[in-house]
Specification:
single chain, alpha+beta, disordered N terminus, about 230 residues, nine-stranded antiparallel β-sheet, globular
């Protein structure tokens, strides 16, 4: 148990926070037009601070939001998505950009070794707990480029092997140019029967949002295909 607790505080690093009013304006006109061509629901914050897309994949509803960041390691705007897939709630997989994982680990190690740190900071993000809970796994069949860019963590290796097939891995790498670099914070997660995506909106253009939506819906399709949905 002590080893797990120590591991929890030996990971996490965040970039400096950028004020939420960073001046990024949302071009929601082109977004809403694209959403309409895809059959997605679209809504925008009247204040111009965020937009949301809604749709269905495999009969399951999903929602993607673009707005103010909810994590210190996200600069500017944040893309986040969620879908209630109804798959086995015991399945757990976290895919995280490798530079983000390394920076989170470095920050948590600093916190753990700080003699003045006497208690757990409740503001620390969930990602710290996930890094403590899951072990990094790898397997043959995916490209070296994928493993250079991403870290996959789970409590059992078979789960991510069934979920992350070569097609999903390829979509995660194939960003339209100029796409996000490997240093842009990105993660996708299966946990408690749901799928999640969180990433920094960089570059801040429609192509980034479109491809993030494609990655998320492809991940949902792959999960629904790989894992049976729970009985009602």
């Amino acid at each position: 148990m002590f080893d797990r607790i120590k591991k929890a505080f030996s990971r996490e690093a965040a970039a400096e926070r950028v004020p939420s009013g960073s001046g990024l304006r949302l071009a929601d006109g082109p977004m809403s037009e694209w959403a309409a061509t895809q059959g997605f629901g679209f809504s925008a914050d009247p204040a111009g601070n965020g937009v949301a897309l809604e749709g269905k994949v495999g009969g399951k509803r999903w929602r993607l939001e673009l707005g103010r960041p909810t994590r210190d390691f996200i600069l500017g705007k944040e893309l986040r998505a969620r879908a209630q897939l109804g798959i086995d709630e015991d399945l757990a997989v976290l895919v995280m950009s490798r530079p983000l994982k390394e920076s989170l680990e470095k920050k948590a190690y600093q916190i753990y070794t700080d003699d003045l740190q006497t208690s757990v900071d409740p503001s620390l993000p969930q990602e710290m707990r996930w890094l403590a809970m899951f072990d990094e796994v790898a397997w043959e069949g995916l490209s070296e480029e994928f493993w250079d860019r991403f870290s996959v963590l789970s409590d059992r290796q078979e789960t991510p092997m069934e979920w992350i097939d070569p097609a999903l891995a390829a979509v995660m790498l194939d960003w339209p140019s100029p796409g996000p670099s490997a240093e842009v914070p990105f993660m996708i997660l299966l946990l408690r029967g749901k799928a999640y995506l969180r990433m920094e909106y960089t570059p801040a253009d429609l192509a980034t949002l479109q491809h993030a939506a494609l990655i998320f819906t492809t991940a949902c399709e792959s999960a629904l295909s790989a894992f049976p949905t729970a009985s009602p």
